[in-house]
Structure formats: structure tokens, C-alpha cells
Amino acid sequence: GELGPELQDALRRIAPLDPIPVDLVARALGRFDAGNLLATLASRVPFVVDEGESTYRCHRLFREVLVEKLRAELGAAGWREWLRHLAASARDLGHVEQALALLLAADDTRAAEALVLGRARMLHERGPADDLERFFASLPAAIDSSRGELADLRAEGLIAQGRHREAIGVLEEAARKADVSRDDADTPRVAGRYRKLAELNFQIGRTREGMRWLRQTGDTDPDGQQAISELEQIVPIARNGRQAPGSREGLMALASLEGLRRVSATAGALGNLWAARPLGVALSLALLAWFFLTSAPAGLSHEAYRALGLLVAALPLLVFSVLGDHLI
Fold first, then answer.
1. How far apart are CA 85 and CA 166, in angstroms?
2. Who's near 254: CB < 8 A, 6+ residues apart?
């Protein structure tokens, strides 16, 4: 028979949901009898189907008719507000894909991007990396994961799987988009992205590309304080001047010390040619590693010993910047 007004209203209210989980209906409508409600609808409306596991679904065309009726009933503002309410309920219950679809239907792109970012951060911290990759693959086209922190998290997932070249591609695309749109004003994040590109390129043997990204790091971190503070975290170096165990990326981190470029200002002034001199760079890094990974002599503080290392490491850069290409 014909549905009563209460059932008709409930049916219209849940029409935006696809699928229709019982727990989400209970939360969104505030009905503890959501299971009985949906079972009644499925028994009386042939276009509402019980899919098992406390989940129902409306036939697509029937759902579209109900959605149009609800939009007309609520008006544009009320429609968007109801979608946001459904999205909040879905998010709280862990139905992330459903919440994302509802926010996009409400044209609330900012809230949708915030939801995606929070989910991506959680998956990155919890692991494994495959889950994060699947999440990014499932995102709708309206969510751009190729820029900002989403791109950085996507690259981290690829790095965790050993797919360094793909991670480089993701970070380079994010860097290009940030340069074009100027929409990424987070200087520490930009500097960190450039530094990560340098480290990844060094790890796969692309020295010139690595040095190019180090120079980009210098442009975003002119005082070098970010690079120096991060060096202490990445390397890590013990108080006695010896490298702490378990840091395979130690030398790569040393390469990202922007002080290396600053103290060789003369070499940089000579056309920045030193950046294309792998031998000079290698010697500088070797000297720098020596000063940072060994103990300071008696009578010399650790800080002074490291400062001396920076100055000594600049010498090969200065020399090799004025040598001709035929000598390399």
C-alpha cells in the first residue's frame, strides 16, 4: 500500500545515501529503530533492496526522483545543509568515501579536501603504504592530490614502497604547480619538498638533479636555519660528535645542508658553475662528513669544529667552479 507521511519523509531524507548503511541512518535521522525502518521500506518499496550486512540501496532512477523531490522541498541552501549533516554523520562513523561524495555533492570542496587530508595523514601514520596508495587511487577527479600536502603524503607512500622515481615525479609535479599558481605559501613545506627531491635524486645517482633541487631549497630558505635544524633531526649527531647508529641517510642529509652553498658564495658568484661539478661536490661532502662525524680536537668546541668543516668543505667548490668542463 501507499506509504504514510513519516515513511515518505524518511525515504526522501535518506535518498542522497548510496549505499544506505543502517548505522548512518540511525545517526543522521536520530532513529534508534533505523534497522526496522529500512526493513519496512524494503518490504513495501520494490526499489529499495536489502544488500545484507546492515546495508540497503535504492535503485538509481528511483533515487534520482527522490533526490529531486528533496531538493525542491528543502531549497538550495537547505539541500546543501542536509548533505553536510549527512556527511558529518558518515565521517563520524568512518564512512569516509560516503562523506566525501556528500560533501562534493554539496559543493563544499574545502571541507572535502580537509576530509581527504585527514584520512591521508592517518593512513600514512598507521600504514601500510599500500592502503595509502589505494586511498589515493579511489579519490574522485574533483580532489586534486597532485599539489600541496596531499602530494607530499602520496610521495611518502611511494617512497615507503621503494618507488623513488615515481615519488620524484609526484613531487616535481607538485613543485611545478606551486610555481605556476603560487598557492603554496608554506615555505617550510616547500623547502622540505625540494630537500626531499634532492635526497631522492642523490639516492638514485642523479647528482646534477639533486644539486639543482638543493639550490631551489636555498631560494626558499635563504637563512638556512630550516636546513640546519632539520640536519640535526635527520643525521642524528650525538653530543660527542659521532654519528648515532641507524641513520643510513646520514650523508644524504649532510648534502642538504644549505650552509654548504652559503659559505661558498664566491663559487656561486662565478656563474654557479660548481653545481655542475660532481667531483668538487663529492670532495666537499666527504670533508663535511669528516668534520661532522668525528670528535672535535681538545680545546675546540663542537660548534667551532663544525663551522670549520663548512669553511673547509667550501674550498673544493670554489676550486672546481673555475675549472673547465674538459677537466671533469
1. 38
2. 231, 235, 285, 288, 289, 292
Residue showing cell 643510513: 248
Are the beta carbons of 200 and 158 closer than 8 angstroms? Answer: no
Q: What residues are paired with 58 via a beta bridge?
A: 48
Asked, as a colleague might, if the bond just before 128 is cis with ω within 30 of 0, I would say yes
3-state SS assignment for residue 283: helix
The average pLDDT across 52-78 equals 95
CA 284 to chain centre: 32
**Residue positions counted in the chain:** 328
Positive or negative, the CA dihedral 221, 224, 229, 235 is positive
Cα separation, 207 vs 174, whole angstroms: 21
Confidence of residue 202 (pLDDT cuts 50, 70, 90): confident
SS3 68: helix
DSSP annotation of 271 reads: T
Cα(259)–Cα(228) distance, integer angstroms: 7
CA 197 to chain centroid: 14
Which amino acid is residue 309, in one-letter code? G
Q: Which residues pair with 21 in a beta bridge?
A: 55
Distance from C-alpha of 20 to C-alpha of 57, rounded to nearest angstrom: 6
Q: What is the mean pLDDT of the chain?
A: 79
Q: Kindly state the cell numbers that stand for 313.
A: 668543505
Three-state SS at 148: helix
User: Environment class of residue 84 by beta-carbon count within 10 Å: exposed (0-12), middle (13-18) or buried (19+)?
Assistant: middle
C-alpha cell of residue 240: 660527542
Mean pLDDT on 18-38: 96
Alpha-carbon distance of 178 to 185, in angstroms, equals 9
| pLDDT for 87 beyond 50 | yes
Q: What is the residue whose three cell numbers read 616535481?
A: 172
Within 13 Å of residue 62, how many CA atoms lie on the same side as its CB? 13
Residues 6+ positions from 225 with CB-CB distance below 8 Å: none
Are β-strands 55-58 and 20-21 bridged in parallel, bridged antiparallel, or unpaired?
antiparallel
> Angle, to 10 degrees, between the axis of helix 5-14 and the axis of helix 22-29?
110
